[in-house]
Amino acid sequence: MREWNTDLPNMMEATFWTQPADVIDAVIARHHAEAPLDWFEEPEYEGVVPAGPGYWCVTRHADVAAISRNTEVFSSADGITMLDAPPEFVEFFGSMIGMDDPRHARLRRIVAKGFTPRMLADLDGGVQAAAAEIVDSVCEKGSCDFVTEVAAALPLKIVCDLMGIPRSEYQGVFDATNVILGVSDPEYQPPDGDLLTALLTAGGQLANLMNEVAETKRGGDGKDLTSVLVNAELPDDQLSGADLASFFVLLVVAGNETTRNAISWGLKYLTDHPDQRAIWAADFEGVAPTAVEEIVRLSSPVGYMRRTVTRDYVFEGREMRQGDKVAMFYVAANRDPAVFNDPFKFEVLRDPNPQYGYGGPGPHYCLGAHLARREMTVMYRELFNRLPDIVAVSEPDALQAAFIHGVKHLDVEFTPTAPLAA
Question: What's the CA gap between 104 and 108, in Å, rounded?
Fold first, then answer.
């Protein structure tokens, strides 16, 4: 077994992320100062797999960039989390994000049709209408769980609309994604403790739903992405049923969970920094681009992403061996003092802001980044205009997980107001 050279807290431990933000930030600062690239013990995932051999913990912004670009040495094909799973499992839950080129490039080229400027423009009206409807649903209450009633509702609806999923299925999709990304959190674990079965069941539910929806779209002239994909004219532009189902799992997990967590953390940051909130409120449209980037930087909804070393390789003076796991901690890279001035401070006017909240540079950069930015901007515009005094009144109930830097619940209060639809 490889020896590790530091006594720093292990950021791969799921319980680490349930600590207060200042405690987490202090540990990240120590990682940057004492061990920005070091070998750590791998935690055990009870009910799923035994502990693995360990991993390289990468925290520097520059190192994340170098690893993200060097796909020949740092592969995605063995999985994007610490779990050592069979290839079929990796592909099912990871789709193209768990592939290397050329398969990755082909699949990404096909599904990118859903993220063209025209497709995104067609979604614009839906994003605005959805945000207004969501605020309508809570505005008379004076308080709510911001995560489940506001932040989660918008990306869930937009992703489902993009794929042509009926509204009646929204709750099932939401519940399944919670299980897939929150399986390390007691709130989302099954009573019998069989986590592997829970994962497979949740994934199977999403796959079956996608297969059913796809069948209803074949031969039609629908404009949703599922219709576009199943009715492609060229054979090379068609996805197999398995690829389509796997892509849907990735889309609802990545597109729903990450955006909802950024929106949720953002309200907490705005509550804790009223001076920054005032700056944004004074010029919403002018400040929105930098404010949204800053929320994504500080929240880093995807906590880390794994790569696997394909051959013995020396990286930044470290002798990495074939098969070694490498964890790029985006949440740490986005707080790198070598790149960000006062990196733990929330500044809505921060510019430049080369954050990696959508992944590092290279072939796996998030396809939906533009859509996520649009959803966040529209949601905050609606909140600023209609619930201008909304504030968090509790600490975020953080997800017990390392892969997703998530919020399960966040209590908020505001002055009640009438819905627009009244």
Answer: 6
Give the pLDDT confidence of 116-154 residue by residue, as tens digits: 888 888 888 889 999 999 999 999 999 999 999 999 999
Task: At 347, list the tokens.
Answer: 């500044």
Structural contact between residues 24 and 17, judged by C-beta atoms closer than 8 angstroms: yes
Identity of the amino acid at 324: D
- Taking the C-alpha atoms of residue 419 and residue 168, their distance in angstroms, rounded to an integer, is 23
Residue 272 has pLDDT above 90, yes or no: yes
Q: In sequence order, what DSSP letters do the residues of 295-360 get, joined into one string? A: HHHHH-SB-EEEEEESS-EEETTEEE-TT-EEEEEHHHHTT-TTTSSSTTS--TT--S----TT--
Beta bridge partners of 74: 309
Strand residue runs (E) in 7-112: 37-40, 55-58, 74-75
Q: Per residue in 185-232, pLDDT tens?
A: 889 888 877 777 888 888 889 999 999 999 999 999 888 889 988 888
Backbone angles phi, psi at 328, to 5 degrees: -90, 105
- How far, rounded to the nearest angstrom, does the alpha carbon of residue 299 sit from its chain's CA centroid? 10
Question: Would you say 249 and 93 are in contact if contact means Cβ atoms under 8 Å apart?
Answer: yes
pTM for this predicted structure: 0.94
